[in-house]
TrEMBL record:
Sigma-54 factor interaction domain location: 56-284
Domain of life where this protein originates: Bacteria
Protein name (Swiss-Prot/TrEMBL): Sigma 54-interacting transcriptional regulator
Keywords: ATP-binding, Nucleotide-binding, Transcription, Transcription regulation
Family matches, as Pfam families: AAA_lid_14 (PF25601), Sigma54_activat (PF00158)
Lineage: Bacteria, Bacillati, Actinomycetota, Actinomycetes, Micromonosporales
Amino acid sequence: MTGGYPDDPWALLAAGATEVLASADGLDVLPGVAARIRRWHQVDRIVQSLPAAGGLVGESPALRRALRTLVEIARFSDAPVLIQGESGTGKELAARLVHTLDPKRRSGPLVVVDCTTIVANLSAPQLFGHERGAFTGAHSARSGAFADAHRGVLFLDEVGELPESLQPELLRVLQERTFRPLGSSTWQKTDFRLVCATNRNLEELEKAGRFRRDLRSRLSAVTVDMPPLSDRRDDIPALARHFLGQVLQTKPPVIETAVERILTVRPYPGNVRELRHLLAQIAVGYVGDGRITVGMVPEAERPGAVARKGTTERTLRAAVREALDDGLDLRGLKSAVAEIAVEIALADCGGQLGRAAERLGVTTRALQLRKAMPAPGAG
């Protein structure tokens, strides 16, 4: 715009403008305008050429916004990226996209570390590596994630679960780009791009004293929000065809209107991951080259059952809200629900591990291990 800078440029952005430039005569900003248009054209071209990848399929405005941000960050910067979103929204796919599009890092490795599996004081070797004899059982030297990700991308999944004792160690590596394997006196250099994902609010964790402020600032140089499936329902038919094609390993069959309607209106607490699981169940009943019909929809997903499921979900929500009001945090809630579910399944199945494991959707071995673990807070 000409005639000086507006008093409230933010209102223009809120109204839909992408950028605000001010000029006396409109000529001095032309190079900047041209550069921005070229950048936007490049980003849009890359977004349109992206291969179909799981939860990143669709044309909804919410998904397109996230993809444009991802593409611009990955291709034109080397900044750390924090990917936020509910479970099942495609955060790992987004991280892999950053690795694929980064011209400097894509020839290097993508190293994935699930922070939910990291245990304080036990998992440092997973990040730092270790020398032979560094601890009991270290029969040979092994590299860790910091070394393995050299010249590539290190993806820390669910970084909000990173133990507090390891947070300053990670910050030091990010600042100094050096680390020392356990049992070694030699500092090693590493150069990687960091991508993190979380379904938790790091700012709230910081306020609760469970996440370092300086580390949060470092990780969130650029933040991308992956939209939940509830914000992109128009993408569900395309996602359904994509997943059916993957499962059936053939051209996606036509989905009857009644089935598509069920898929589109159904709630998805697990987001795209839950939709993919449902389509895998539907594909079990598919035979030949026909359509996806109502008879292939599992009984639990049919209209009457979905209504009952809605009642169950409301009851569960009320119980979770009461537990949160009583001071139980997410980690404690997960543990408590798991313990209660195991107790109920075992009681209903007369103590038979095999039947209880089947009802819980886990292996018998996993249930045996859980029963053998000490209760939280036990000696």
